C-alpha cells in the first residue's frame, strides 16, 4: 500500500531532487541514468509502519538523510505542526544538496511543506498529478502546490484543462498520464495466489475477498468516523474475508483505529488488519479482489486499471474522474446502504480503464525533464485571460466620485438626486408625484435609470439607492407599511425589490423624518453628537431620534412620530384620526386650513398682498400676511409655534437630548416662539438645551443618501 513522504536526490548532468510521495517503485524509472540520493521524511521513518524506508533502499536508492517530520497526535494541530517541523528541517538539507529541480507529487500536507521550502529557496518545482479534483482539504493543498510549481505533469485531459483555467502556462504542462499505471498495466500476470494466501490465508480464492481502505475526511472528522464504523458493520454482516488497511495519519485516524479495535477487527476470523503492504504485492491484491471499498484515491484511480469493482464512500473523492467500475455511495449514512452496495458490486468484472494512463508516463516525464532549460528565468509567469479594459489605470476612474442615488417621495413632488460622499447634490431631478401606485413606481424606476446613466457621464460611481418616503416604513425589508393620506395607494409597498432588480444595486428605505435625522448626523449640526432630535416641519410634521449615535426605529417602526404628540385635549382634528396633535396646529396643511378660513372671510389679505384667482391659498400666504402685520395671521402662527414648542418641551422631558434641530420650510418661522415656550414651560434642567434651525437645503435627499454612504463606509445602520 502506498506510504507517503520520501524525497530522492540524484546527480545527472544537473542535480535532480525527486519527491516520491508514494511508493518508490512507482517512480523508479524517474531516476534512470542518475545515481539517486534519497531523503526520507514523514511516515517512512515510523517503526509501526515496518520501517518502509528499507523498501526504498531495496530499490537502489542511497538514503542520504532521514528526517522525522511527523508530529504524532493524528489531529488537525498535529498536521499543522508536522508541516512546520518539515519547514524547519528541510532548508538545511536543500542547502546541502543544492538541487536544480524538485519533483513534488500529489496533494499531501507534507508535499506542501516541501514545495513551500523549494519555492522560497528558488528551486524549480515540477508537480505531478496537479489539476485533479477530489473533495477534501487535499484539493486546496494540491492547488496551492500548483501555484508554487514551475512545471506540471498531469494525468488526464480534464486535469490539464483545470491547470490552464488556473492560469498556468500551457507550454509548461505535460499530459503524461499517471506514472503508477506504467507499473499497474504490466503487473497482473504475476504469481498472485501466493500473495493472496500470504495476506489473507490459504483458504481464500481469487475474486472472493475484499480490500478495505478508508481514511479520515479532515474537513468532517466526526462524520467520517461514523461512516467508518458503519462500513465495518456492513463488512461484518457481508461475511467475506477482508483485508483492512489502517488509515493514514491525517487528523481523525486515531479515532478510526479505536473504532477498529472496539469492534475487534484485528482478532476477527474474517478480517486481516495490516498497517502496510508493499506496493508490488498491494496491486496484486486489488487486481484480484472481489471488491475494494473505502475512500482512498487508489480505489478510484489505480484500481480502474484492473476493472476491479470499487465502492467509493462519502465525499473524499467526489470530484475524481472514475471508470464504470466505481459505485459512489455519497451519503453513506446507514449500514444498509453500504451493505446493498457490496451486494451490487462484489464479484463483478468491469472493463479495464485507462482514464489515468496508458503505461508510458515515465518516458514522457523523462523527456520533459530533459527539455527544461535551467538557464531560463526562474520567476514564474501566469497566463491570465484577457481583460477587455484595464480601467484601474485610467485617471478618470481613479478620480471617480463615490455617490448614492437618493429618492424623496413627498406629498407633492417626486425627487431623485445624485449625492456625493461629501453631501454635494451633483444633479437633481424633480417630477410631480403621480396619484396611482403603477404610475408612481414606473416613474421612480424611470427617473432612477436615467440618473444612473447620467452618473456615468458625470464620473460618479453609484454605490446604492436610498429612498425617503412619508408613512411608516420597515427599513429591514424595504417596505412601506402605511403611508400618509398625502400619498395614495402606498400601503404594503415593496420598494426594495423592483429597484434592486432593475438597477442591480442595494436599496435602503426609511421614513422621511428618520432620513432628516440621518442627514443631520452625517452632514449637518448633529454630526458627532451622541443624542439629538430632529423635527421636520413641512406639509406634515415628522421627526427622527438619534440615541447613542444610532437611529431609533422602535419595536413596530413607529418611533419619532413626533407630529402626533398630543398638546391639547380639545384641539383641531388631525389627519391621523386623533385631535390636538402638533401636526393639527403647526404643519403646512394646518396653516393652509387656517389661511383658507381667513381668506373665505376676507380677513387674510392686507395692503401689499394679492392672491391670483388660479392660485390656491396656502401656508406661505398666511406667513406673508403675518409679516405685513395681519394680527389674525400672527395669532395663528403664534398658536402653531406654541403647539410645536410644547411638543419640543415634551421631547426634552422624555429624551433629554443634547440638541433639537428644526428642519423644513417652516422652521425659521417657528424657532423664536419655540424657544420662548421652552423658557416658560420646560424644567430648568433642560432649558439650556439648544434648539437650532437646520442649515441643510435638502435633508430628505441627503438622509436617503446617507443610508447608502454610511453602509458603504462600514458604518452600522
TrEMBL record:
Coiled-coil region(s): none
What residues does the UDP-N-acetylglucosamine 2-epimerase domain cover? 39-370
Q: Superkingdom of the source?
A: Eukaryota
List of catalytic residues: 512
Q: Where in the cell is it found?
A: Cytoplasm, Cytosol
Q: How does it assemble?
A: Homodimer. Homotetramer. Homohexamer. The hexameric form exhibits both enzyme activities, whereas the dimeric form only catalyzes the phosphorylation of N-acyl-D-mannosamine.
Family assignment?
Answer: In the C-terminal section; belongs to the ROK (NagC/XylR) family.
Q: What is this protein called?
A: Bifunctional UDP-N-acetylglucosamine 2-epimerase/N-acetylmannosamine kinase
Q: Quote the gene name from the UniProt entry.
A: GNE
Amino acid at each position: 500500500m502506498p506510504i507517503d513522504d520520501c524525497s530522492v536526490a540524484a546527480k545527472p548532468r544537473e542535480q535532480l531532487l525527486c519527491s516520491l510521495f508514494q511508493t518508490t517503485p512507482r517512480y523508479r524509472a524517474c531516476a534512470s541514468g542518475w545515481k539517486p540520493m534519497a531523503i526520507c521524511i514523514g511516515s517512512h521513518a515510523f517503526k509501526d509502519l515496518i520501517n518502509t524506508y528499507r523498501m526504498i533502499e531495496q530499490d537502489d536508492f542511497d538514503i542520504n538523510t532521514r528526517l522525522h517530520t511527523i508530529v504524532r497526535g493524528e489531529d488537525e494541530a498535529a498536521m499543522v505542526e508536522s508541516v512546520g517541523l518539515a519547514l524547519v528541517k528541510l532548508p538545511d538539507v536543500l542547502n546541502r544538496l543544492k538541487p536544480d529541480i524538485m519533483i513534488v507529487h500529489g496533494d499531501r500536507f507534507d508535499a506542501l511543506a516541501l514545495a513551500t521550502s523549494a519555492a522560497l529557496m528558488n528551486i524549480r518545482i515540477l508537480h505531478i498529478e496537479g489539476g485533479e479534483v477530489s473533495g477534501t482539504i487535499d484539493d486546496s493543498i494540491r492547488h496551492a502546490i500548483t501555484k508554487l510549481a514551475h512545471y506540471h505533469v498531469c494525468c488526464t485531459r480534464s486535469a490539464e484543462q483545470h491547470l490552464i483555467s488556473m492560469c498556468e502556462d500551457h507550454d509548461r504542462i505535460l499530459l503524461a498520464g499517471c506514472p503508477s499505471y506504467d507499473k499497474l498495466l504490466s503487473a497482473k500476470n504475476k504469481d498472485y495466489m501466493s500473495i493472496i494466501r500470504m495476506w489473507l490465508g490459504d483458504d481464500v480464492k481469487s475474486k472472493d475477498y475484499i480490500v478495505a481502505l478508508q481514511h479520515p475526511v479532515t474537513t468532517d472528522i466526526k462524520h467520517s468516523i461514523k461512516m467508518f464504523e458503519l462500513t465495518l458493520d456492513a463488512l461484518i454482516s457481508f461475511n467475506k474475508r477482508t483485508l483492512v488497511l489502517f488509515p493514514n495519519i491525517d487528523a481523525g485516524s486515531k479515532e478510526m483505529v479505536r473504532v477498529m479495535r472496539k469492534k475487534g477487527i484485528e482478532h476477527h476470523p474474517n478480517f486481516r488488519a495490516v498497517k502496510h503492504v508493499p506496493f508490488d504485492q498491494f496491486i496484486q491484491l486489488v487486481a484480484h479482489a472481489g471488491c475494494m471499498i473505502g475512500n482512498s484515491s487508489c480505489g478510484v484511480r489505480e484500481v480502474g486499471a484492473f476493472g476491479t469493482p470499487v465502492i467509493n464512500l462519502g465525499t473524499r473523492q467526489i470530484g475524481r474522474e472514475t471508470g464504470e467500475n466505481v459505485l459512489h455511495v455519497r451519503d453513506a449514512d446507514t449500514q444498509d446502504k453500504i451493505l446493498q452496495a457490496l451486494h451490487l458490486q462484489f464479484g463483478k468484472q468491469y472493463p479495464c480503464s485507462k482514464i489515468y494512463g496508458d503505461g508510458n508516463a515515465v518516458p514522457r516525464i523523462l523527456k520533459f525533464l530533459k527539455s527544461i532549460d535551467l538557464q531560463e528565468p526562474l520567476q514564474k509567469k501566469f497566463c491570465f485571460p484577457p481583460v477587455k479594459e484595464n480601467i484601474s489605470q485610467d485617471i478618470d476612474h481613479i478620480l471617480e466620485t463615490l455617490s448614492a442615488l437618493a429618492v424623496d417621495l413627498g406629498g407633492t413632488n417626486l425627487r431623485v438626486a445624485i449625492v456625493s460622499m461629501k453631501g454635494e447634490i451633483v444633479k437633481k431631478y424633480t417630477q410631480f408625484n403621480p396619484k396611482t401606485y403603477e404610475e408612481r413606481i414606473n416613474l421612480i424606476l424611470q427617473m432612477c435609470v436615467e440618473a444612473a446613466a447620467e452618473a456615468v457621464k458625470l464620473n460618479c460611481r453609484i454605490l446604492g439607492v436610498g429612498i425617503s418616503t412619508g408613512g411608516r416604513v420597515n427599513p429591514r425589508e424595504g417596505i412601506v407599511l402605511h403611508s400618509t393620506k398625502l400619498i395614495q395607494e402606498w400601503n404594503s409597498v415593496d420598494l426594495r425589490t423592483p429597484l434592486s432588480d432593475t438597477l442591480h444595486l442595494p436599496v435602503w428605505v426609511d421614513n422621511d423624518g428618520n432620513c432628516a435625522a440621518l442627514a443631520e448626523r452625517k452632514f449637518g449640526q448633529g454630526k458627532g453628537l451622541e443624542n439629538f432630535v430632529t423635527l421636520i416641519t413641512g406639509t406634515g410634521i415628522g421627526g427622527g431620534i438619534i440615541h447613542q449615535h444610532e437611529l431609533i426605529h422602535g419595536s413596530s417602526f413607529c418611533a419619532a412620530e413626533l407630529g402626533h404628540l398630543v398638546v391639547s385635549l380639545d384641539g383641531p382634528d388631525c389627519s391621523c384620526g386623533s385631535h390636538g396633535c402638533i401636526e393639527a396646529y403647526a404643519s403646512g396643511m394646518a396653516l393652509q386650513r387656517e389661511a383658507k378660513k381667513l381668506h373665505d372671510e376676507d380677513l387674510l389679505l392686507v395692503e401689499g398682498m394679492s392672491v391670483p384667482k388660479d392660485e390656491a391659498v396656502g401656508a406661505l400666504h398666511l406667513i406673508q400676511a403675518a409679516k405685513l402685520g395681519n394680527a389674525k395671521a400672527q395669532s395663528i402662527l403664534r398658536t402653531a409655534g406654541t403647539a410645536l414648542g410644547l411638543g419640543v418641551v415634551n421631547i426634552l422631558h422624555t429624551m433629554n437630548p443634547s440638541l433639537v434641530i428644526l428642519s423644513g420650510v417652516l422652521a425659521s418661522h417657528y424657532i423664536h416662539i419655540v424657544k420662548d415656550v421652552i423658557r416658560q414651560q420646560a424644567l430648568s434642567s433642560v432649558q439650556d438645551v439648544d434648539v437650532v434651525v437646520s442649515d441643510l437645503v435638502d435633508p430628505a435627499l441627503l438622509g436617503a443618501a446617507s443610508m447608502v454612504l454610511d453602509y458603504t463606509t462600514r458604518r452600522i445602520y
